[in-house]
């Protein structure tokens, strides 16, 4: 990008063929897509500051770096938007109810004369980030393409965050491909979605197109001509743009045609809307299949309030809100994406847990790191601008470039401090980051920066501060004209201060000089104790504003001085830009070490944040076994909401007892408990400690939830359809290592149908090895325990108290989970008693209901043979589990086995005549 060397992407004819004038481009007569070697660069689109700003009088020419940039450029001097599909497609999109609200794509240069870069700002994109909005913001453009004919169902996705130069590729081809694509896209929070025009041909969309439009109703779709989804071009792009550090990805993706095709369309579109190109060898390119992370579908993420609170989108009562104590935007983004896509590799999780443990044990390290991390800016965003080459050079571009150099220096200045903090760390991950920071490129770039940038130039908050930093960033004696311009600027600023003083003296008023980006220098005056001449402001004071007790205004002379100030600044920025461009051209080839830094800072920030959460509440380090066992687990968000520890509960799910039915009256805490288990599982899989006294988890490859929505706005039938869709999704996608949470299935239909559906779904799920927690009001389902040995009934206990005075009964919720089916009967009728329903109707209902339940209960007791088989099954599964996981010493193991024997005998006793235990004991 910044180099003038020609060997990276040469201007050889071969290179022109592969990179510049590809068949794709040639076939487009109305586009002037062309490769522009330095000598032939278009003067209209690449006008130098010197040329364009002849009024400066210095006649400075375009810095070498700018022409060097063009070396690697893939320049689009577009006059038309032929990249986009014809209007018929967009109208077909609109006819589907997609009403785009337009806004400028963040990060787009938007220079005059270019195609206006517009992407939609949608309700979805605004709200779905909520607590994470400040950190994640919708700035991701996603391209999606599906195979045709036999390859239908093979789907490639390419996405790029405008604030982070990482191209992420994914490809799905298995049965759950559609669901995975939707989930992946929800996680990305797209600002805009690109699809081939053929996906929505003649107003009749493909299955994928329809799914996407349904799931992202507010996000803008852009139909791109299918020919731009070109896998060969995609591979070329990646070979050209991928930074060498991430080069192995090319091996990974070279036969993944659909994600390559999506990448081609995406990168081309980005060039088009941003009016800039990515520099050669500058992008981080990664392939993310669905294997490395656990899948949490978007409905489940919503149900569990992972990143967005369902009642108030701005509320921090989410898992992200509980765990987010990050100091940098990169750290917050990383935490968010980890929560939505937890890890599945136990070693990686344990490495993170080791780090958190070290942070918790070593206070000096914890606070040292927290301090060091807190000063970092958004490194991804910085990288993003450093690797982009603007196609037009304006004064704004020049000013921004100087800011970027200052930010780069500020960032690199922080590296030694970070190294120092990590010097004596002990755990593997911290050591690895410590080593990665030893990379001498950090020092090399900083040393080069310091040859032209003042030692004490740094990033500061406040527009005037930053303006001053930019103005004096370049060392003196590097450019004679720059020094002269700066002297002129200083004089004008001094004159402004003098003018304000004089004016104050003239009117006898206490005036001071202020500055804002919009107004430049202006005068401020407090009204307190001030006597105005003739009781009003003198007419000389113009553009008066009043805020609380403060007047802001200016005078004609000050406005003129502001203009002179701006003129001087323009020259300063222009000349500083030339110097900074030269500087960047010398450091650009090393700039990719910032990817390492970004990775280190965001990960350290996230782990610090997770450690921080442990200091606020009592969390414990989880273990990973083949059993889910939580002792005194708590709901992490409820804990935050109520500000005290909620009632804790134990959980136990193993292969031999993998289906738990939970009953209990309304408001007894069933949903809370279910969510608590899922949230703890997710926390453990991102490498966080969990709110419990002890916790062991089996790694889940997928987490599904089906949780009843409040039906205040849904009709019964739509509630039912939603339930059925969600349950169908689970049934189609479940695996033996999934965790499933189902709360109140079958509410949206009649009781018989509801019970029927629940029964069948339960039988299907309990035939798998997945762990399922199933909460229901249908007590009839409890008899599944007597039919299947791996089913266990549990219930939320409630107590009844009767008032001595009135005799009225009231219910006390204990929120405690106990073995067995809920004894509570007819709590619906109790609720009805509170209403105006006549008492004779209630009495009659009670009699009928109790008859029905007696009949049902009679059927629940299984025959002795089944009970015996059940006892044997339980013993066998516990013995197997012990053999696999036990870390007990021989004596404790003997005691444990004795306990198992007793339990087995008791179960047999309950079943009927006892059997000999000799065989088991041996
Ligand atoms: N473990 C707990 N500790 C303290 N409070 C709790 C606990 N569990 C639940 N609660 C409180 O009880 C309320 C009701 O809980 P929840 O919604 O989980 O009940 P439910 O049995 O699922 O009810 P329904 O069957 O009507 O959906 C929660 O909003 C919460 O305030």
TrEMBL record:
GO CC, alphabetical: nucleus
Ranges where the DNA mismatch repair proteins mutS family domain occurs: 738-754
Protein's UniProt keywords contain DNA-binding: yes
Sequence ranges of Low complexity compositional bias: 34-56, 85-96
Spans annotated as Disordered: 1-64, 85-126
Gene3D superfamilies recorded: 1.10.1420.10, MutS, connector domain, P-loop containing nucleotide triphosphate hydrolases
Pfam family, one: MutS_IV
GO molecular function terms attached to this record: ATP binding; ATP-dependent DNA damage sensor activity; mismatched DNA binding
UniProt KW keywords: ATP-binding, DNA-binding, Meiosis, Nucleotide-binding
A biological process from GO: reciprocal meiotic recombination
Protein family (similarity comment): Belongs to the DNA mismatch repair MutS family.
PANTHER family in UniProt: DNA MISMATCH REPAIR PROTEIN MUTS FAMILY MEMBER, MUTS PROTEIN HOMOLOG 4
UniProt protein name: DNA mismatch repair proteins mutS family domain-containing protein
Organism field: Champsocephalus esox
